[in-house]
Design brief:
- By secondary structure, the protein is mainly β.
- It has a domain of 219 residues: Exo-inulinase, domain 1 (Jelly Rolls).
- It is 9% helix and 26% strand.
- The protein has 2 helices and 17 strands.
- Strands 1, 3, 6, 8, 11, 14, 15 and 17 form an 8-stranded antiparallel beta sheet that branches. A 5-stranded antiparallel beta sheet has the order 2-7-16-9-10, with no helix packed on it. A two-stranded antiparallel ribbon has the order 4-5.
- It is globular, with a radius of gyration of 22 Å.
- The relative contact order is 0.20.
Length: 316
């Protein structure tokens, strides 16, 4: 009887252990449109990397005549306070990130786009800019979200800030300019990695090819903060690929407006939200229109990087 009870106890403990393992491995689907700590490709399945860690296979140049060049590298070095406009990659060391400053003129490489085309998508991308730099992520190659060094001050134009949606190509469409500022400012200083997390619905077309529904950004998170929700795009934005809107199109990165680096670009088919998307927590951050100032202590009332920003380099 004693041996029987010991055996039963051991069986119960073992069963509880296996239940624990199953529960630990079964993370609930994170389909509420909000941030959940680590990047989503680390915690959920179905993600596909768009950078292979070796070369730029799977990407093409939009303008091969550009003299600048992208570098695939294992590390990116920012020049710091003494040289804030510098952003370079470790040479002769291929890795999981890319930077557009491999040769002079630094920061003037071609825009690049994926050879593969995508439809409704969830996309995660990380980026770093040097001081005074400007880039962008082109969803479907056509709809740009601005990547700017706009941290700590109010830009001259409201759409010249990180997280803004750019203006429509050719001017207003149906009376709308297309430029949209973020709901909240979540940008970080130059030299720091930042992220965009997109939930995107491609435009719809009928059997004749006529567009019957606009492209739509269901949600965009900038560094985990909700900056856009249910934003339709009536047409392409300025300086994107010269391709028509379609149900499936490539993804693109801007490389000809200043020093920028990218890493951890992942994509997967769009999944429906489980019920209503999570409420916007509106954490303490720069609100739209608030400059915050570059002076003062980082993270303090000024939110600045210390002192006045360095002078912008002369235009070429």
């Amino acid at each position: 009887m004693k041996h029987f009870l010991v055996g039963m106890a051991a069986a119960i403990v073992l069963a509880c252990f296996f239940v624990f393992l199953m529960m630990a491995a079964d993370i609930p689907p994170l389909t509420d449109g909000s941030d959940h700590g680590d990047p989503p490709f680390l915690t959920e399945s179905g993600w596909k990397p768009l950078l292979n860690g070796k070369d730029l296979s799977g990407w093409e140049l939009a303008d091969p005549s550009k003299k600048g060049k992208w570098l695939v590298t294992s590390g990116v070095y920012w020049g710091g306070i003494n040289n804030p406009t510098s952003l370079v990659g470790v040479p002769n060391s291929p890795g999981d990130r890319i930077v557009n400053t491999d040769v002079e003129p630094a920061g003037n490489a071609s825009n690049i786009y994926t050879t593969e085309k995508f439809g409704d998508s969830e996309v995660y991308v990380e980026f770093m800019v040097a001081a005074h730099s400007n880039s962008g992520f082109f969803m479907h190659g056509l709809y740009e979200t601005q990547i700017w060094d706009s941290w700590g001050f109010t830009p001259r134009l409201a759409t010249d800030q990180c997280g803004a949606m750019y203006h429509y190509q050719g001017g207003p469409i149906d009376g709308e300019d297309g430029g949209i500022t973020p709901k909240a400012r979540a940008d970080r200083p130059p030299g720091q990695w930042q992220s965009y997390h997109y939930w995107f619905q491609a435009p719809r077309f009928d059997a004749s090819g006529k567009k019957i529904a606009n492209a739509k950004f269901l949600r965009i998170l900038h560094n985990g903060v909700l900056i856009h929700e249910n934003v339709e795009r009536r047409g392409p934005t300025v300086a994107t690929l010269k391709i028509p809107e379609a149900a499936m199109n490539p993804m693109g990165l801007q490389g000809d407006h200043g020093a920028v680096a990218f890493r951890n670009i992942y994509i997967r088919p769009l999944r429906p939200f489980a019920g209503s998307p999570a409420q916007d927590l509106q954490p303490t951050t720069q609100q739209p229109g608030q400059g915050g100032g570059r002076g003062g202590r980082a993270g303090g009332p000024g939110g600045g990087r210390g002192g006045q920003p360095p002078a912008a380099p002369p235009k070429q």
